[in-house]
Amino acid sequence: MKLKWRQLPLGPLQTNAYVLRNDKKECVIFDPGHEGEKLISYLQQEGLTPLAVLLTHAHFDHIGAVDDVRDAYKIPVYLHKEEQYWLSDPELNGSYLFMTNREITAKPADRLIEREGELTIGSFTFAILETPGHSPGSVSYYCKEAGAVFSGDALFQMSIGRTDLPGGSFNELMMSIENKLFSLPDDTAVLSGHGPKTSIGFEKANNPFLK
């Protein structure tokens, strides 16, 4: 079954939400960070049926539309157990610090990711990679069939995620990228939380933080 993905930059930080769809017009949504109405309008226009929301981590700019989508479609939200309390805590998710006039929260996740392994949702299969460093519960979702990894804020085109937020660690992030993400095939598309797509091979050869 052929899979296609769509990048949707949303909100003031233009955080990338991704919609991965199959031929049956089922889809999985990654990191619905803001502008829930815009995201839902896109899903309706495309006639898509969401099956789940997968969060790479629980910073405020990745979770702002979680409840909009979950409530509209009655679907589960997946999040790593290390950040299970972040959705409801503006201090942990960063909105208290960065959003002057607004604290962003969401209801608890429906499914907690406890370890690396295979995750199957309908016809979609992902390898869950624990990639902490940007945040303690950061995970990346590798979909072999799509030839892509949804990496959140771990790895960007020619850059890496910041590590100066609560629970961040530069050394952990370097290990996550080099031991987990760089173990994927070079032609794997890296679908990051911000900015354009890149590839594992390109970042191995060109990323100045990883020379």
Automatic annotation (TrEMBL):
Its cofactor is Zn(2+). Residues 14-194 form the Metallo-beta-lactamase domain. SUPFAM superfamilies: Metallo-hydrolase/oxidoreductase (SSF56281). The keyword Secreted does not apply. InterPro entries: MBL_Glyoxalase_II, Metallo-B-lactamas, RibonucZ/Hydroxyglut_hydro. Keywords: Hydrolase, Metal-binding, Zinc. This is MBL fold metallo-hydrolase.
